[in-house]
Amino acid sequence: MKKGCLKVIGLGPGDVKLLAPQALQAIKDADAVVGYTGYVKLIPQELLEGREVLSTGMMAEVERCRKAVEASVAGRNVVMVCSGDPGIYAMAGLVMELLEAEDLFDKISFEVVPGIPAFTAAAALLGAPLMHDFASVSLSDLLTPWEKIEKRLEAAASADFVIAIYNPRSKKRAGHLGEAVEILRKFRSGNTPLGIVNRAYREGQKVKVVTLDTLDVNDVDMQTVLIVGNSSTREVAGKMLTPRGYANKYDI
Fold first, then answer.
1. Burial of 252: CB neighbours in 10 Å, binned 0-12, 13-18, 19+
2. Are 6 and 72 in contact (CB under 8 A)?
3. Considering the entire predicted model, what is its pTM?
4. Residue 85 · residue 8 · CB < 8 Å
5. How large is the angle between the packed helices 176-185 and 146-158, nearest 10 degrees?
6. Is 208 exposed, middle or buried (0-12, 13-18, 19+ CB in 10 A)?
7. Closest to 194 in 3D by CA, of 144, 157, 145, 247
8. Residue 31 burial (CB < 10 Å; 0-12/13-18/19+)?
9. Which of 19, 173, 197, 249 qualifies as a FRET site for 147, CA 20 to 30 Å off?
10. CA-to-CA distance for 16 and 230, rounded, in angstroms?
């Protein structure tokens, strides 16, 4: 039996034009495509023709990762698809944990193929908010205790990082965003620019620049990425700019 191959790939933010060539080639080379149903739908139908599609709904991460591992162990060429980058709040880590637990790294060929992550897609639509040091924090407490998330958010805010916030609000976690904003207000002024990007590069995309004081939580859901500026971030022509420091060093 031939040695199987498992590639965990990032689809990017959703627009096929932002699908990295290496990830595109991985899909073309695959016998089977595994992923969350919503992400599989982002792949053009012609790329899925002739390939088995193994998809699961939300909250079935372990199940679909096991499907991908089992198919590759059986000698198939498999791609596990994720949105954004597979190594950022996605499936690359879980797949590696499963391969480690079953001692399968020598049994298959394993590879992670990067994609454009959600926070860089959001940043591009907002202008240049990530020009200096930044941090990324997810507000989802499904796998991480909320107390730890609070500490991480406070640490990033106190260090004056620009902060990208993933999973900011859901129906079950409607209050977390308000609590996060209160933490940010300890270290940032109320007029700090804050970018709201819904469904970046997908149908229904919305981009808005507000401030900490004017943020409306009803504009935010699980498909939103927030970019919170640091003490030097400013709004320019409806976009966000975090200066790197060139103006202080050079005459511009």
1. exposed
2. yes
3. 0.92
4. no
5. 30
6. middle
7. 157
8. middle
9. 197
10. 32
Residues 151-160: contacts with CB under 8 Å, at least 24 apart: 153/180, 153/183, 153/184, 154/183, 154/186, 154/187, 157/183, 157/184, 157/186, 157/187, 157/188, 157/228, 158/186, 158/187, 159/135, 160/187, 160/230, 160/231
The residue type of 57 is G
User: What string of pLDDT tens digits covers the 252 residues of the chain?
Assistant: 679 999 999 999 999 999 999 999 999 999 999 999 999 999 999 999 999 999 888 778 999 999 999 999 999 999 999 999 999 999 999 999 999 999 999 999 999 999 999 999 999 999 999 999 999 999 999 999 999 999 999 999 999 999 999 999 877 777 899 999 999 999 999 999 999 999 999 999 999 999 999 999 999 999 999 999 999 999 999 999 999 865 666 666
- Number of other CB atoms surrounding residue 213 within 10 Å: 12
DSSP code of residue 17? G
CA 207, CA 204: separation in Å to the nearest integer? 10
